[in-house]
From TrEMBL:
It catalyses: CMP + ATP = CDP + ADP; dCMP + ATP = dCDP + ADP. GO terms for molecular function: ATP binding; dCMP kinase activity. This is Cytidylate kinase. Gene3D superfamilies: P-loop containing nucleotide triphosphate hydrolases. It comes from Mediterraneibacter hominis. One of its GO terms (cellular component) is cytosol. The keyword Cytoplasm applies. Its EC number is 2.7.4.25.
Length: 218
C-alpha cells in the first residue's frame, strides 16, 4: 500500500502547483486526475461530440484508453497511444472536461487507473473527489480553496505565461460555472471530506501552503 495524500478543491485553487512541489519535497509521485478528465475531453472534442450528447459520450468512453507516464518526473498523458499532454490546458478542454465529468461512464473509465496508482505508489493525487470517493482512506486529506477572484487571476496569469489568449472576465465566469457544475453534480461532487484539512490559499504564498501540507505528511 502506498502513502496517499489527497488534495481536492475548486478550479484554479493552485492544486497542481502545490501538489507538484509537495511531491518533489517528499519524493512521492504526483498524479493530476484533472488531466485524465481533460484527456477524455480532448477525445470527445476530436470526435465532434457535444457535452450534451450523453449517449455518444458514454459510447465513446469504450474506445478511449488513458494512460500516464513520467518524463523527467513530469506527468505525461497518453490517449490511445498518443502523448497529448500539451493539448490539455486550454479553457475549451477544461470546460468540456467539467461538463463531461458528470457522466457516470466518464468517471468509471478513470476510477480503476486512479485507485491502482495510489495502491502501488506513494502519491500526491489532486482532483475533486479524491478524498471523498477515490481514496477515502488517504493518509492525508487537504481541501485547498481560494476566492473566485484570486483563482481567476491565477489562471489568467498561467494562461498568459503559456501564451494562450484569454480574458480575465471570461475566466472568472468559467471558474464560477465550473464550481457550480463540479459542486452540484450527482456523482462524486466536489466537497470537503469530513476528515480533510481546509486550507484557504487566498492570502498565502505557495511556499506557505507547501510547508503546511508537508508538515501534515509523514
Ligand atoms: O483540475 P482540472 O481543472 O484540470 O479539472 C478539469 C475538470 O475535470 C474539473 O472541472 C472537474 O469537472 C473534472 N474533475 C473531476 N474529478 C477529478 C478531477 C477533475 O471531476 N478528480
Amino acid at each position: 500500500m502506498g502513502y496517499n495524500v489527497a488534495i481536492d478543491g475548486p478550479a484554479g485553487a493552485g492544486k497542481s502547483t502545490i501538489a507538484k512541489l509537495v511531491a518533489k519535497k517528499k519524493g512521492y509521485i504526483y498524479v493530476d486526475t484533472g488531466a485524465m478528465y481533460r484527456a477524455l475531453a480532448v477525445y470527445f472534442l476530436e470526435k465532434g461530440i457535444k457535452a450534451s450528447e450523453t449517449a455518444k459520450i458514454t459510447e465513446a468512453c469504450k474506445d478511449a484508453e488513458v494512460k500516464l507516464s513520467y518524463k523527467n518526473g513530469i506527468q505525461q498523458v497518453i490517449l490511445n497511444g498518443k502523448n497529448i499532454t500539451d493539448r490539455l490546458r486550454s479553457e475549451e478542454v477544461g470546460n468540456m472536461a467539467s461538463a463531461t465529468s458528470a457522466i457516470p461512464e466518464v468517471r468509471k473509465a478513470l476510477l480503476f487507473l486512479q485507485k491502482n496508482l495510489a495502491e502501488k505508489e506513494d502519491v500526491v493525487m489532486d482532483g475533486r473527489d479524491i478524498g471523498t470517493a477515490i481514496l477515502p482512506n488517504a493518509d492525508v486529506k487537504i481541501y485547498l480553496t481560494a476566492s473566485v477572484d484570486t483563482r481567476a487571476k491565477r489562471r489568467y496569469k498561467e494562461l498568459k505565461e503559456k501564451q494562450i489568449s484569454c480574458e480575465l472576465e471570461k475566466i472568472k465566469q468559467d471558474i464560477a460555472k465550473r464550481d457550480e457544475q463540479d459542486m452540484n453534480r450527482k456523482i462524486a461532487p466536489l466537497r470537503q471530506a469530513e476528515d480533510a484539512v481546509l486550507i484557504d490559499s487566498s492570502d498565502m504564498t505557495i511556499e506557505e501552503v507547501v510547508e503546511k501540507i508537508c508538515s501534515l505528511c509523514k
